[in-house]
Amino acid sequence: MTQLTDRSAPLSSASAAERGRAAALTVSFLRGAIAAGLGLGGLAVLVLAMWIISPYPESGAGGALRAAAALWLLAHGTDLLRTDTLSGGPAPLGVTPLLLMALPLWLVHRTSRDALEPDEGRPPLTAPGVVATVTGGYLLVGAAAVFLVAGSTLSARPVCAALTLPVVTVVAATAGAWRARGRPRGPLPAWLPGAVRRGLGRVVGAPGVRRGTALALRAGAGSLLVLLGGGALLVGISLAWHGEGAYGSFLRLAVDWPGRFALLLLGLALVPNAAVWGAAYGLGPGFALGTGATVAPLGAAGGDVSSVFTPFAAVSGGAGPGLNWAVAVVPVAAAVALAWFTVRVAAPPYTTKEEAWGARATALTAALGGVVCGVLAAVLAAVSGGPMGTGKLTVLGPVWWLTGAAALAWTVGLGVPAALLLRARRLRERAVPEAEEEAPEPADMAEARQSFWRRPALRLGAGAVSAPSGETAGGLDLLVADAEAAQREREREADAGEPSFEPYDFLPDKAWHERGARQTRWAAVKQTSGGLMADFPGTGTPSGALPVKRRSGPDGSDTDAVP
Question: pTM for this one?
Fold first, then answer.
């Protein structure tokens, strides 16, 4: 009976822990569903507001909600089908606004990270469990959105939604869980052979390789940001150059103010896409504006791009060969940024040549950063493009593999030599001050120092020791003599036209602490005190000092008294 009673407590505690873990997983599942609802609700509010201010809405509130769900699916990379076309056939819509994609990615990332934060009264969860539950709750709302838009004006392709929704959700949730765990580096996959695992473990696990990989990732990301910034700048310059055509197309597309406001919001959502397209233009391959129509620095090829889509009139034509090729400054700036981000860690300021990275390690890190920039540029180019209709509008955006190859060639071809040159310059600038510090002393400074040591040192009283020669003299009047000698020396140097050099006078350490020097100093101080200072035992009475009388104290001991 006692054994049964003793065993009941562990069983109940284990079951309680299991119930707590199941409850925590349920909460994580609900967190994923709430994250999807927040993203869908935000777009629904925006679409309903546009439906309210529209003077001639084509559908009711239900149609506006279905349009919001379709936009939410489009933000995850799901292609849509538009049925109300002039030809009567469905037209695909696959250009994903990257600004809209940022919202669901951030929501899933934040939800997964918060689910793994420790909380009192809740058992800790594993990263795979959180990723699975958050993804399950999010996909439940996504499936409901796919069924909601089925059969409407903007419907989603079920097969495409089944591929894009889980991929986007799992990637964002995994990134959030990885960040919540402190960005750990997990073990190599178990399906690799043992020899390969050991070899990769020795190579990848080395501290130098880890530092180089982390630096390459940062340098590649920084180079990509500079590339995208240059692409956005090119798009802004093009819009300003062709402002009249862009404004005319804007007025023709929307005749009323609510429509213009909606078109302006759509343009803002496509700003990151335009930055990617501008970066592809600066890299050289350019981007496609329809079947057979390409815009590149050499000019538009394959037909008049303004006939493809009215807003594309802003990029028709060109400013001339010289100005078109001036866009090469964008990839050059990206390569320079790659070199700077690499060298700022490989050879930082205020470090010695021995502490800086070698030329080989710097070049390999810069090359790996160029690979990272090329891969990221290819991914963004693939996501930013897609179809916007049938016929000529089936191909829009840059070719992903051409864009990635061009980014790799520019950043590696220019970034690696720039990193080596910047490293050599920093090491050379650092070697110049070191050489100046080790240079021999000028002759005039050496002569001034020798003349200083030939001068008598500061004397503090009668019989003080002279620093260079060790001579002794008596009386405080030697201070005045030293001052007069120093003044005469300065006047002589001034008459001769030589610069005056007057360092501080000081006594050598050994001569200052000698017993005779200390006794002489105390005797001089006692002499100048007028007999107010008592004599010290064992020092003796120097010549010229006042006598000290002794008297008996009340307890019979002798004490000194000054007459």
Answer: 0.71
